[in-house]
What we know:
The protein is of the alpha/beta class and about 220 residues long. The protein has 7 helices and 10 strands.
Amino acid sequence: MGDREFGISPDMLNHYAIQIKRILDVGVEVAIVIGGGNIFRGLQAKASGIERVQGDYMGMLATCINGLALQSSMEAIGIYTRLVSAIEMRQIAEPYIRRKAIRHLEKGRVVIFSAGTGSPYFTTDSAAALRANEISADVILKGTRVDGIYSADPEKDPNAVKFDKISFAKVISLGLNVMDMTAFTMCQENSLPIVVFDVNQPDNLYRILNGEPVGTLVEV
């Protein structure tokens, strides 16, 4: 959204595309799971009189819209991409096939996973954890608007303390909100590390993949 209340900011699309191109140029394979909250949040559908399952499907379709927008921005600067959807819509996206997605990554294409898991009641976090494990990703980089995991909400509590590194078990014991629990435990069970970082800061993606201590690392 950028500084808008809803919708898509061209400036933010360009920002993400440039950051992604920089890490592609050093040989990193990149898969993206994208949300749709800037257009529609399934969990908020109840207030609109829309039942939960219908609202979740609307949210999944919103991720496809964002995926198309991000794809266009990346291709405009020379990045080869594939938009992959968990819900079949062949005219605009490939259906998700695990082996095919892995092959795209091996060929240097950025794979954008849209439509979540394709099922209601699962968040974008769950889609990220599921796809990351399916393609044997090395790490999940969770881009947020804060620079890591804190002991409390840093936007509300000035005394909140930032963690540079934390275990899955400690996150659970402290009741910290990193991902929804389904996604988080899937990563824990498969020893898949998570880095939570500020995605809006230029060069953060590059710095993380260059081994710099950016954000918060969650590991077993």
